[in-house]
Amino acid sequence: MGPRAGPRVSLGLLLFVWLTVYCSRPQAAGFSQEGLEASRANLWANANASLLQGFWCQPASQLSRDELSALIRRMASQQVLLKAWQLCCLANLAALRGLQGDFLLHPPDLLLFYNLEQVREADCRAFTGRAARGDTELLANLPDQRAALQHAALACLGGPHRQLSASDLLLLGVLVCDMDASSIVASDPQVLQNLQRCPQLTPAQQAAINTLLASGRTVLGPPVSWNPAGLQALGPLATYISPSLWAQVQEAVGLDFFGSMVAACRAGQLSQRDARRFVTSFLEAETKAKSMSSRPKRGTATVRPCIHGNITAATLRDDLFLVRYDCSQLESCLGSQVLKANLDPLLQHPLPAECQRVIKAKLAQIYPSSVPEEQLRLITSLVYLYTHAEISLWNITSRDTVMALLASDVALENQTEPHQPLSCPQAILQKFLDHKGKITSALLVAIGGSRLCWMSPQQIQAIRPSEFRLAGALDVSSCPQSRKDVLYSKAREAFSSTRSSAAYYHFIRPYLGGAPLEDLQHLAEANVSMDIHTFTNLNPHVLQSLSVDHVTMLLGQNVGDLQKARSHPTVSSWLRSLNRLALGKLGLDTDPASPASPTGPVPSTPGTRDTTLWASHLAATSGGSGNDGPYSGSPPAHLRCLPLAVALPSSLLWLLYWGSLGPFGDCSQGACTAASEDSTMLAPHAGKSGPVGGAGCQPGPGHRPQVQGTRPSPTS
Predict the structure, then answer these.
(1) Which of 5, 97, 338, 518 sits at a 20 to 30 Å CA gap from 264?
(2) pLDDT tens for residues 547-567?
């Protein structure tokens, strides 16, 4: 931690002592059990959003019904945004505690994961209205649950084939995002209000929107009568308007709206992606109109002379700049000095791809050897145009430069072609590493988990385990399988010294998509109750080798969620390999191809004694007891205050750890050395090669100090 760690360690110790005192209350004389239950429920009822966002199902499974109810209600009142893996298991916990009937007091996102068969017919409209306020993209890995949700909602309205009225659409909310094109066109024009909430639309849905707008049935009327206020009311849907419709809009109205959209983009109120889609469509209509009025003569040069005058700094401040200067005029009218001095304001405009290539070519003329590093930080939107050979000429010495080039959404949207031997992001990182740069936890957090997919295996291996640990949970689910495999190996190295199976699973969970068969089998034996969202991200080829018993043990009480994801390619492929007897054992119907009918959680398999994850390599702990709770990998019931510690922000969890490290080792240099061999958890294959890395003494949130030289207990 270094010399400046003192104040932070003190804070960690202070929090640790507070939690210890709170945990000791049940043993204090004079406290009634009823009073303690009410106190704990009150604790959850007053937790803030940052604590609740760290929700973790395993310790939360020890909460009583009232405590869990208070927790869920607090999440709703604080509008806490949980991830899909958290919501999957929380929904099952709520069902086990009989809380699903209180859905009106629960977060809308949570309702998306509920057992729809348990919704009473009398409650269907109220349930649908509440669920329709959630984010259906959270169900991306549960296609059957998503389809069943829409089917149930339409059935509640009288059937899937009736024309949807304005009142129906008001109830359906975001569930309309899954409607097909024909249903959109046939619905009341109010459907446009619903579609504004959709994070993405299919090409067929976009075409349906244009059909509806062209019909004149909307409040805007026919395109010739559109006005700026009406266009503004369309929100993000205006970015999908086709060139053929823009050609029918009055010129003054179109230009007014164009200026407002560019201004919103430059102010950061509209993403570059959406703004560029709008600008490209609008300018296509403008170009067609101009070409019809003045067709060039044969033999005319492709590069036209500058017609509208040289571009100046004042010109670039004009929101109609791209209307007055098309890409050809940009090439003719933009001088080198103006470009050098005004690169940032120029690139704030949502330039079409053709114009971006013009800017890149002009920069090559100004900087023939290499773009200076201070300018590199400004060309985020152009990075995808550069080849690895061109990037190899850059001078990248600063972490800020790497973050500017890779951390933006534009960089993520414009990845280079996969056939290139060295991708653009890899080349940028390699130039940084070549200048003795280091991939730190701060850099990993800044560029995000999805950018790890771009790193080469060698670059991933170069990340120090201590930095990987401090970066916390990174979402790498979008990575190709080859990268998931490497990232899992790195994560296992980083977290191998975690002192309890439950805590180890909590840290390793985001990286399990690269786990080999043996490791998943060990996890199954540790009874971690994997959520279905994580399960769908496992390596499909490895999953094919898992037996029904192992999958049942791996999912635990969440095994019933297989029904919600049976059409997911990974799950579907595995189910097709099973016979009728095996399907029945999983609680599924015997025809894998039959329509899904999501069920609730099924009783978990009989729990085994909680052991450290890699029990085959460790001696059994004395004094262990069985665990009758729904999560046999969870802490025992007497640690009911543990969920609060787990819910603390990750930074504070690390503080608790560093502050209580004491006798276990020295982490002052950023790498942890265990105090004794016995106090280090071995990785899955550690029996062959010893402790992984010798670093990484991160205990889980349920960590308690151990006596030096003794093996940590499973639930410590």
Answers:
(1) 338
(2) 999 999 999 989 999 999 999
